[in-house]
Amino acid sequence: MIFMLNIIILAAGSGKRMQSKIPKVLHTFAGRPMLEYVIESAKNLNPDSITVVLGHEADLVKSCIKNNDLNFVLQESQLGTAHAVMCAIPMISSFDNDDSNTLILYGDVPLVNVRTLRSLLDSCHAGISILTSISDNPYGYGRIIRNEFGDIVQIVEHKEANCEQLAITEVNVGIVAIQTEKLKKWIGIIFNNNEQREYYLTDLVKIAVDDGVIVGSVSPNDSWEVLGINDHIQQANIERIYQYEQAKNYMSKGLTLSDPRRFDVRGSLKFGRDVFIDVGCIFEGVVELGNDVHIGPYCVLRDVTIEKNTRIEAYSHISNSIMESNVAIGPFAKLCKGSYIKSNSKIGNFVEIKNTNFGNNSKASHLSYIGDSNIGSNVNIGAGVVTCNYDGVNKFRTIIEDNAFIGSGSQLIAPIKVGESATIGAGTTLTDDAPADQLTLARVRQKTVVNWKRPKKN
């Protein structure tokens, strides 16, 4: 038997409680808009269609969520959740029988597990099934009303509930699985005769009961799956839940974390055996860590590959770079786009590397800037060395060949080449190529000015 699945994602709200010009569903956690997480979960169900209902700043949302597999519809006036679904009805398909289901999701409920959604769809055989949860703090949620047999007979919105109903802790999450033909039939008989003058999707439950259909229900394994984001406090709370769940998953696969509650992955993290990560580290984009890699506290890594036995010391920031094996980085080092650090090299404290190939067994141990450079093997770069690669308009490369020694406080004015085994004396400003195997220096002869006195304040 062939089943058809349509998914509708409601994402039209402005999110007034966010107090932001940014539409609510574009606010991020773990580095991505919350709507992207919902779309990703929807795609994992392999649906026949996904329709996103937009409203506030619809064009901005469409431009930020670039996906050719989505249908977008506009809810010009936000008249309630059922009205939003009505706007999407023309986009969903069904067969003549009951072999087509529609799943209704929310763009601000990003953590719901695909396993939970599959269970909800499986429980939809009678016609409709809803996702419910037991809440210690049910304020604001619609309450699930059951009869003496335990069957769901109604959902009462918080604002419409009486004192007895407000005491109920089983709440409606809002996510619904329903046979498509029943949705098309029932959605048109929802009215807005309530205090808010809105069309409530929850009225589907009473309509189903009146039509003699048993309403199914499923609850998630973890209550945090169904938490929504309506303000920045909830946004931060969900961020921490998500990161802690990621941390537990990584630790179960062998990653050693100093503190799983002080750990953030805002992309993807791959790691080998015996990898250690200290507190406060942030991983963005695609990060790959080889065996026996050690990451010190409060490092930020973005789109980085690090091979085995490499140590990244505290407070180092690395982006779009590659480190081979047995490399030492930091503390307080910065590696920028296009840096390739070869094996057994050292980039020390307060050293910045950008768009540079840094050779085997070479080192820049302290307080240097190396940009747009090719550094050979066994090169020593002293403290305070600067490659002057930018003339205000164009950038130029510095080439330092194998076994060169660059004295402290030197400035290399690119484009320039330092030959193999050359030595550059400390304090040199190099404006011409330095020959191989020679000492090159450029200094003004020291002199003392007799009888000079420091100026004094008037």
Label this structure with key terms.
alpha/beta; Spore Coat Polysaccharide Biosynthesis Protein SpsA, Chain A; UDP N-Acetylglucosamine Acyltransferase, domain 1; twelve-stranded parallel β-sheet; eleven-stranded parallel β-sheet; 37 strands; 16% helix; elongated
Care to give the gist of this entry?
By secondary structure, this protein is of the alpha/beta class. The strands form six sheets. Strands 13, 15, 17, 19, 21, 22, 24, 25, 27, 28, 31 and 34 form a twelve-stranded parallel sheet that branches. An eleven-stranded parallel sheet has the order 12-14-16-18-20-23-26-29-32-35-37, covered by helices on one side.
If helices are DSSP runs of H or I spanning 4 or more residues, what is the number of helices?
8
Radius of gyration: 31 Å
The CATH architecture assignment of the largest domain turns out to be: Alpha-Beta Complex
Terminal CA distance reads: 95 Å
As residue ranges, the low-confidence spans are none
The CATH topology label of the largest domain is Spore Coat Polysaccharide Biosynthesis Protein SpsA, Chain A
Beta-strand content estimate: 25-35%
GO biological process, one term: peptidoglycan biosynthetic process
Region (N-acetyltransferase): 254-458
Keywords: Acyltransferase, Cell shape, Cell wall biogenesis/degradation, Cytoplasm, Magnesium, Metal-binding, Multifunctional enzyme, Nucleotidyltransferase, Peptidoglycan synthesis, Repeat, Transferase
Cofactor: Mg(2+)
